[in-house]
């Protein structure tokens, strides 16, 4: 299982939110570049980055930060937030981003997901963010009438290989991952599943590994010191491929 430490960008700074509420944004690090370097030094191979401004505005806002991290950190970078067109996807991949995450468009424009997967294969991931099992879109500000399992099955049918699942109610809360929903998701589809939201300790890493998940995203727990990133990577038995 791979560990993906997270950097969320809002107003060009590294922040964390609680349950996706933009009003709770607080800075957790001075520099995204120094933070990425520290993740690499801890042994990370991947980094998960989110354009919070982009997710809200429906278009990329902080592209230059992600591209610089991809170009200079030595890490594989996956990016999500406000990516709604083939032009944007192509631009990110041309600039060295390893994997592009499509979120809201998976619900609102599934044909774009199919086209992107057809052209770029496993460089496309879908982020499924849910509250009480129902998918939320537009930076988690809008609730849909689609369940996370139904959307996952539709994405599998579209050829998606990687799904990032976030339980919004746990994100930024240090309350533990939702093993029940993650287990159901991993059983429902053949896609690689990355857990996101609620990681608080090594136990969460072990729980995700026991579920045979592909990856686990770690955010607030790393910044608060509740989770030792190097130890998490060691316990996950991370493979760099």
TrEMBL record:
Its main location: cytoplasm. It catalyses: 1-(5-phospho-beta-D-ribosyl)-5-[(5-phospho-beta-D-ribosylamino)methylideneamino]imidazole-4-carboxamide = 5-[(5-phospho-1-deoxy-D-ribulos-1-ylimino)methylamino]-1-(5-phospho-beta-D-ribosyl)imidazole-4-carboxamide. It is an enzyme of class 5 (isomerase). It comes from the Bacteria. InterPro entries: Aldolase_TIM, His_biosynth, HisA/PriA, HisA_bact_arch, Isoase_HisA-like, RibuloseP-bd_barrel. It is found in: Cytoplasm. Belongs to the HisA/HisF family. NCBIfam families: 1-(5-phosphoribosyl)-5-[(5-phosphoribosylamino)methylideneamino]imidazole-4-carboxamide isomerase. This is 1-(5-phosphoribosyl)-5-[(5-phosphoribosylamino)methylideneamino] imidazole-4-carboxamide isomerase. It comes from Blautia parvula. The gene is hisA.
């Amino acid at each position: 299982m791979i560990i993906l430490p997270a950097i969320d960008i809002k107003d060009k700074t590294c922040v964390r939110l609680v349950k996706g509420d933009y009003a709770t944004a607080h800075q957790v690090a001075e520099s995204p570049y120094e933070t990425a370097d520290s993740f690499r030094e801890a042994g990370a191979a991947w980094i998960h980055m989110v354009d919070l401004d982009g997710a809200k505005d429906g278009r990329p806002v902080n592209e230059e930060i992600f591209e610089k991290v991809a170009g200079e950190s030595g890490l594989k970078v996956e990016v999500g937030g406000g990516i709604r067109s083939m032009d944007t996807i192509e631009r990110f991949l041309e600039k060295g981003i390893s994997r592009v995450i499509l979120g809201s468009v998976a619900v609102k424009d599934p044909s774009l997901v199919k086209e992107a997967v057809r052209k770029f294969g496993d460089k496309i991931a879908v982020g499924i963010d849910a509250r009480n099992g129902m998918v939320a879109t537009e930076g988690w500000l809008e609730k849909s009438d689609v369940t996370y399992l139904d959307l996952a099955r539709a994405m599998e049918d579209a050829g998606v290989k990687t799904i990032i699942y976030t339980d919004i109610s746990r994100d930024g809360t240090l309350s533990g991952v939702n093993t029940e929903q993650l287990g159901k998701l991993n059983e429902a589809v053949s896609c690689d599943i990355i857990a996101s939201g609620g990681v608080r300790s090594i136990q969460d890493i072990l729980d995700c590994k026991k579920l045979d998940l592909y990856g686990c995203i770690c955010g607030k727990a790393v910044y608060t010191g509740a989770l030792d990133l190097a130890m998490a990577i060691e316990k996950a038995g991370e493979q760099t491929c």
